[in-house]
Recover the amino acids of this structure.
């Protein structure tokens, strides 16, 4: 057993969501602009959107109704609008 095995990512709980960070996130922050995607297994390839600002992706449980999905957060409102316009769940 390797003593340097990385620890699992911690869960983040906000007033609205229980979040599980994606290990592929470059930025491990929750940004101001958020989109909840109610498709927990949809593939979301954020680099393919060619966004201008920082972004992050989380598996999410919406606490109000316990709906599972994904939360995408964006530093810039323009990136949020671009994502909403282009994202189509598979």
């Amino acid at each position: 057993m390797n003593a340097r095995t990385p620890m699992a990512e911690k869960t983040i709980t906000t007033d609205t969501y229980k979040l599980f960070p994606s290990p592929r996130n470059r930025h491990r922050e929750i940004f101001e602009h958020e989109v909840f995607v109610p498709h927990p297994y949809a593939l979301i390839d954020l680099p393919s959107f060619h966004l201008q600002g920082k972004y992050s992706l989380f598996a999410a449980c919406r606490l109000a109704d316990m709906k599972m999905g994904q939360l995408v957060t964006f530093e810039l409102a323009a990136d949020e609008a671009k994502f909403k316009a282009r994202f189509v769940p598979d």
Observations:
- The CA atoms of residues 16 and 64 lie 7 Å apart.
- The helical segments are 77-86.
- The two ends are 38 Å apart (CA to CA).
- Confidence is low (pLDDT under 50) at residues 1-7.
